[in-house]
């Protein structure tokens, strides 16, 4: 009688893996499209605080409409839920705006090479703030991750300090976001999709006043006119695409976070960066020196070793 039970278990495990595989592939594909449109928009309209706000606003709107017309069931939330969500939303807002500021200053590939160092931040935060310990192999894998990122940074042809720091801040913020979200999602009846919807709404509330103070409507209006005169009226579709795809890729990533640990999530996120780095280099004709590419490859290899060591 044990045999059929075992076969059932193997089958459901395979189904789970296939499901996660589909989530990952969709997440990565949507992310590539987001990154392309986001950079196209930022090249013509360098206002990352506004574009970050618009992507959160678009996601919030999509979800409010989905709840209203019942494509998705609205979550039942209480004050406690929003209180627990608040630190996650602060981390999400900081990580999002910092990455977008970074991408407004440097090549998309450079931001993502630095962001491939996220597992290193994850280990350091877990070790020094949460007191977790890891096997020696995990610490060793940080050497190629950090070394590779450093090599890619010092050999970057268009290095910019704000671009570099933005990506570093985003790494740190997202590690906290992932740790807090997983804690917040545990045992809650709110699904990954609705959790991300609430996160977008709260982040939008947090970010809007800052975006107005940092950039403001006057700069936006002037910038918009310049962008439309250079690109044409279809510029608005680029903005719409970056906003919609931002929401979609994050929504799918949160649906997968429902099923996996924050650690696996970080690894999936880093592997995603390979497709973003390669496609953005091709599309934007980003100049890359061999030593620069070597740095990126070492960092990504480090992440692979890290994933093996944490298993
Ligand atoms: C953002 O704007 O939030 C970043 O581009 C996203 O970074 P991620 O690739 O870590 O989701």
From TrEMBL:
Record keywords: Chloroplast, Membrane, Plastid, Transit peptide, Transmembrane, Transmembrane helix, Transport
Membrane-topology descriptor: Multi-pass membrane protein
Subcellular location: Plastid, Chloroplast membrane
One GO BP annotation of this record: transmembrane transport
Any single Gene Ontology cellular-component annotation: Golgi apparatus
Domain Sugar phosphate transporter, residue spans: 19-307
Transmembrane segments: 20-37, 49-69, 136-155, 161-180, 192-214
Main location class: plastid
Keyword Ribonucleoprotein included in the entry's annotation: no
Record carries keyword Membrane: yes
A molecular function GO annotation: antiporter activity
Protein name: Sugar phosphate transporter domain-containing protein
Species the sequence originates in: Manihot esculenta
Taxonomic placement: Eukaryota, Viridiplantae, Streptophyta, Embryophyta, Tracheophyta
């Amino acid at each position: 009688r044990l045999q059929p039970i075992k076969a059932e278990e193997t089958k459901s495990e395979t189904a789970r893996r296939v499901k996660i595989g589909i989530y990952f592939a969709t997440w990565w594909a949507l992310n590539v499209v987001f990154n392309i449109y986001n950079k196209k928009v930022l090249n013509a309209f360098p206002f990352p605080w506004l574009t970050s706000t618009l992507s959160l606003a678009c996601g919030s709107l999509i979800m409010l409409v989905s709840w209203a017309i019942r494509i998705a069931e609205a979550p039942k939330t209480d004050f406690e839920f929003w209180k627990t969500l608040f630190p996650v939303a602060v981390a999400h807002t900081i990580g999002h705006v910092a990455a977008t500021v970074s991408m407004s200053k440097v090549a998309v590939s450079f931001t993502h090479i630095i962001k491939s160092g996220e597992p290193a931040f994850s280990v350091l935060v877990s070790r020094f703030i949460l007191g977790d310990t890891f096997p020696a192999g995990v610490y060793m894998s940080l050497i190629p991750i950090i070394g590779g990122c450093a090599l890619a940074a010092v050999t970057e042809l268009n290095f910019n300090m704000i671009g570099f720091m933005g990506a570093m801040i985003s790494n740190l913020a997202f590690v906290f976001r992932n740790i807090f979200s997983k804690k917040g999602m545990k045992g809650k009846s709110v699904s990954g999709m609705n959790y991300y919807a609430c996160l977008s709404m709260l982040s939008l509330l947090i970010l809007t006043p800052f975006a107005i103070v940092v950039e403001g409507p006057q700069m936006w209006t002037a910038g918009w006119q310049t962008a439309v005169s250079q690109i044409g009226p279809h510029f608005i579709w680029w903005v719409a695409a970056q906003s919609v795809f931002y929401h979609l890729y994050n929504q799918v990533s949160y649906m997968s976070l429902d099923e996996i640990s924050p650690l696996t999530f970080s690894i999936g996120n880093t592997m995603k960066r390979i497709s973003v780095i390669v496609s953005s280099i091709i599309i934007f004709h980003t100049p890359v020196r061999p030593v620069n590419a070597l740095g990126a490859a070492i960092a990504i290899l480090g992440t692979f070793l890290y994933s093996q060591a944490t298993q």
